Amino acid sequence: MAISLFTLLAAFSCGGSGKTGGDAAGKKTGETALDLNVSVPAFNADSAYLYVKRQVDFGPRMPNSAGHVACGNYLAEQLEAFGARVTNQRVDLIAYDGTLLKARNIIGSYKPETKRRVALFAHWDTRPWADNDPDASNHHTPVLGANDGASGVGVLLEVARLIQARQPAVGIDIIFFDAEDGGAPQFYKGDHKEEYWCLGSQYWARNPHVRGYNARFGILLDMVGGRGSVFLKEAYSEEFAKDINKKVWNAAERLGYGTTLVDKRGGYVTDDHLFVNRYARVKTIDIVPYSDGGDFTPTWHTVDDNMEHIDRRTLQIVGQTVLEVIYREK
Ligand code: AHN
Ligand code: ZN
């Protein structure tokens, strides 16, 4: 563990009160729940990179495709191999144009009996159309989703591998959502509704895999492997879960990642965390490369969203930050 206790204490005391207990109600705040004594495992970005590549090697992974079936089986098997209790949530969902999607949310749980939990989310499906490609002749080609889909899942598989080696104090649920990326394509002339995105998370948020499911907070990873990506505090996350954004961006700052997870407010992204916040009431943030009014990454919803544009360094920064948060949670 490279980080000295001194550094942590210094960062901690600059944060404000310096209290180590709970508040008057005994409820722990984000800051006071920090465990400074625990060691945090080292994220292996080469390992995460291989988990990203493994998914991309199945080809496009939109619902009702062969790659989707094969990759879904791989993800469930991999979570089991890492010692998680796996739940497959299979459901028929209806796309924007009425297409029936054979969808599958895949959940891997650690310490399922523990009430103190943290949820980690990513979507595993890929977009059926490269409708943001500069070349219009590509607009009906499915994307490979190396960044948009596989990156978040790859980081979380590496987190699962490390959890199996040594569990954090809290229980962890790793939740891979399906059918995130089937929102109406840009070439569609009808209505564009936000509810056409994130079908798998909408389903899970209304029908969680465990009755009455709750978690202290959630973190969604979306497009966390792009070269040179910068992550601002996404705006819905600020509205629903400001303290969690603070907890995560503080963790990144402690690790020296403050120029990648930049402590500034970004724009609003209609993403899985929106529905988790709205319907499941688990306060959840989104780590997503989106600036206010800007775009996502240059490869977003293009045929170039492939392994060439995945950078281990970005995977490393996001993965180590997630570990820093979950292993210091008491
Ligand atoms: C919208 O473009 C409205 N939401 C983007 C959510 C998304 C798509 N994340 C990955 N792909
Ligand atoms: Zn997408």
Key words describing this protein structure:
two-stranded parallel ribbon; six-stranded mixed sheet; 34% helix; 330 residues; disordered N terminus; Aminopeptidase; binds N-[2-(1H-imidazol-4-yl)ethyl]acetamide; 8 strands; alpha/beta; binds zinc ion; globular
General description of the model:
The protein has 330 residues and is an alpha/beta fold. It has helices at residues 5-14, 45-56, 66-81, 146-165, 199-206, 235-254, 272-280, 312-327, and strands spanning 85-94, 100-110, 117-123, 171-177, 217-221, 231-233, 261-265, 284-287. The strands form two sheets. A six-stranded mixed beta sheet has the order 1-2-4-3-5-8, with helices on both faces. A two-stranded parallel sheet has the order 6-7. N-[2-(1H-imidazol-4-yl)ethyl]acetamide (AHN) is lined by residues 148, 181, 197, 222, 269-271. The site of N-[2-(1H-imidazol-4-yl)ethyl]acetamide (AHN) has 7 residues, from loops.
